[in-house]
Amino acid sequence: MKKKEIQMSRMWKYFIDATAEIIEEEGVESVTIRKVADKAGYNSATIYNYFTEISHLIFFASMKFLKNYTSDLGEYMKKGKDPLEKYLLSWECFCKHSFQHPDIFHALFIMDLGDHPEKLIEDYYKIYPNDLINIPEELKSILFERNMSKRSRSVLEAVEKEGFIKEENIDSISELTVLIWYGMFTNILNNRMNYDFEEAAKITMNYISEMVLHANVFDFQKNISVQQQ
């Protein structure tokens, strides 16, 4: 690594670690450029030499809290006997962690980050490569994808190859699972429901499981065509 890259990486870590401390102590909503600068020991203007907007800083800091999820994900999917079980277990793990830490997962998967958010994920793992240690190769492609539908679809393709669902239903199932999660997640994030995170995860997984397990009973493409007429 060149001297300039080392210096930049060091500065990024100062600001990301400072932001992570604020999130841990006060919550995501309390993060401001001034607070980050004060905690890191620099002035606010210096931050903008490394981060174009505060949402990127929050995103990078939130990635530091994703390690428990990524570690859990591998263990969850090991319990699956086939690709369909692995798909449902991956969602179970995601629901558990996202409902337990909604502010973090909002910053990671929903907050507007501008163009090319996947580049931010690549940049993060360049700075913190140790976060990828012990992550199975088959899961790394998921971790580098921020788009929820694409994450879901990549696992569903293995489910289709084993004959559990029809190829023409992959996109519909992927979209529906994300919409089910997003509906509950939005309600929890905005305090519209009084479920604790375990109850919210259980209810969401019931809906997802029912929809996926009965996917071949319904002809999604046919139903969509009828609705569009």
In terms of topology, how is this protein built?
Elements (H helix, E strand, L loop, with lengths): L2 H24 L6 H8 L3 H4 L6 H10 L3 H12 L4 H18 L1 H8 L7 H11 L9 H7 L4 H14 L8 H20 L7 H17 L6 H9 L1
Helix pairs in contact: 1-2, 1-4, 4-7, 5-6, 6-7, 6-10, 6-12, 10-11, 11-12
Q: What do these coordinates show?
A:
With about 230 residues, the protein is mainly α. The chain has two domains: about 5-50, Arc Repressor Mutant, subunit A; about 65-229, Tetracycline Repressor, domain 2 (Orthogonal Bundle), CATH 1.10.357. Helix content is about 70%, strand content about 0%. The protein is built from 13 helices and no strands. It has helices at about 5-25, 35-40, 45, 55-65, 65-80, 85-100, 100-110, 115-125, 135-145, 150-160, 170-190, 195-215, 220-229. Helix 1 (about 5-25) packs across helix 2. The longest helix is centred in the first third of the chain and has 24 residues, at about 5-25. The protein is globular, with a radius of gyration of 20 Å. It starts with a helix and ends with a helix.
Please outline what is shown here:
Keywords: DNA-binding. Helices cover 71% and strands 0% of the residues.
CATH topology of the largest domain: Tetracycline Repressor, domain 2
What is the radius of gyration computed over CA atoms, rounded to a whole number of angstroms? Answer: 20 Å
The shape, in one word, is globular
The CA-CA distance between the termini, in Å, is 58 Å
Q: Identify low-pLDDT runs.
A: 223-229
Keywords: DNA-binding
Protein name: TetR/AcrR family transcriptional regulator
Organism: Bacillus lumedeiriae
Domain HTH tetR-type: 9-69
